[in-house]
């Protein structure tokens, strides 16, 4: 993670030294704009992880669309053991149906499992329940490392599968591609080693006919890194972003991100095109993130994988 930050700074310095944007140094423009999505609650973490009932899911989904997004992600898969109950499966189906009916077919919906099912059969039951709503993809249906189980899931569903946010080394991605276990890979540029390593992972994915949707529930510098990466990456699909995670998100860094009609625009900048206001940053010292595990206790009192 530390190397990722240093590497991004080096790209910025390099770009400034040759008066070019980082996206051009990475290989040049492969698209005219960058599709993006945010979460229910637009980054406010309790809304992200605790929107588990129909009314708040629909209301928060509509609020995201009203802000100009054309895609969103929800986290409403319950913490589950090795089997999903009929009540749990039906509840997930109702939430997806309500969200799709409220937003219409013009909005892309993704559902994050966050590795909560403990077995492939439980994950498949939820995927089947979601399938009529035609999600763009389902994310982390199983915990990291379950490559064989993911491949088995992929063989049994037409719903695209995504994973990768918790992998931190290029070699950890290789088994997923060799097994053709996923459709969408989700490296986090702030943890895999930076833009250079991210591009290598993207090339590995392209060889396996796999698209990319980088993980990025992070701050404005991470967003700008993702912007340059997406512009230059041929098999990019969609970019996660968290503009609303804190009220002062846009105050610390002045950058080139402009969102229009649900997509970031291609900037004409030098380097990454950012300026950090350290005086503003000092007013917001680091505070530990709240771990949202309110619902992680299973019916028998077992603690789920959160």
Share of helical residues: 25-40%
Label the overall shape: globular
Structural class: alpha/beta
Uncertain segments are: none
Beta-strand content: 5-15%
Q: Determine Rg (CA atoms, Å).
A: 19 Å
Report the major sheet.
Answer: 10 strands, mixed
* Topology as a string of helices (H) and strands (E): HHEHHEHEHEHEHEHEHEEEEEH
Mean of residue pLDDT values: 94
Number of helices: 11
Number of strands: 12
| Termini Cα gap | 22 Å
Write the layout of secondary structure elements.
Blueprint: H1 2-18, H2 22-25, E1 33-39, H3 45-50, H4 54-66, E2 71-74, H5 86-103, E3 108-112, H6 120-130, E4 137-139, H7 147-156, E5 161-163, H8 170-178, E6 184-185, H9 195-207, E7 211-212, H10 220-232, E8 239-240, E9 253-254, E10 259-260, E11 263-265, E12 275-276, H11 278-282
Parallel strand pairs: 1-2, 1-8, 2-3, 3-4, 4-5, 5-6, 6-7
Antiparallel strand pairs: 1-11, 9-12, 10-11
Helix pairs in contact: 4-5, 5-6, 6-7, 8-9
Give an overview in words.
There is one protein chain. With 306 residues, this protein is α/β, with parallel strands linked by helices. 39% of the residues lie in helices and 12% in strands. It has 11 helices and 12 strands. The strands form 2 sheets. Strands 1, 2, 3, 4, 5, 6, 7, 8, 10 and 11 form a 10-stranded mixed β-sheet that branches. A two-stranded antiparallel sheet has the order 9-12. It is globular and about 60 Å long. The mean pLDDT is 94.
């Amino acid at each position: 993670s530390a190397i990722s930050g240093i590497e991004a700074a080096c790209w910025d310095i390099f770009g400034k030294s040759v008066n070019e944007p980082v996206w051009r140094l990475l290989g040049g423009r492969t698209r005219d704009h960058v599709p993006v999505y945010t979460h229910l609650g637009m980054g406010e973490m309790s809304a992200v992880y605790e929107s588990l009932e129909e009314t708040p899911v629909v209301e928060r989904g509509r609020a995201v669309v009203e802000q100009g997004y054309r895609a969103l992600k929800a986290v409403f898969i319950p913490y589950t053991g090795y089997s999903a109950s009929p009540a749990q499966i039906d509840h997930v189906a109702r939430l997806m149906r309500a969200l799709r009916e409220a937003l219409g077919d013009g909005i892309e919906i993704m559902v994050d499992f966050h590795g909560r099912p403990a077995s492939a059969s439980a994950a498949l039951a939820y995927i089947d329940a979601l399938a009529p709503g035609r999600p763009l993809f389902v994310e982390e249906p199983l915990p990291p490392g379950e490559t064989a189980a993911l491949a088995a899931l992929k063989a049994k569903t037409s719903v695209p599968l995504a994973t990768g946010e918790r992998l931190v080394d290029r070699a950890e991605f290789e088994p997923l591609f060799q097994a053709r276990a996923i459709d969408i890979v989700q490296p986090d540029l702030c943890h895999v080693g930076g833009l250079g390593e991210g591009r290598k992972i993207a090339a590995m994915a392209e060889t396996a006919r796999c698209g990319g949707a980088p993980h990025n529930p992070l701050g404005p510098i991470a967003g700008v890194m993702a912007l340059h990466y997406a512009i230059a990456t041929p098999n990019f699909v969609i970019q996660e972003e968290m503009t609303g995670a804190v009220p002062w998100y846009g105050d610390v860094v002045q950058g080139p991100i402009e969102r229009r009609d649900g997509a970031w625009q291609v900037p004409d900048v030098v380097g990454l095109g950012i300026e950090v206001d350290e005086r503003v940053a000092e007013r917001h010292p680091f505070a530990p993130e709240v771990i949202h595990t309110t619902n992680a206790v299973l019916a028998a009192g077992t603690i789920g994988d959160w």
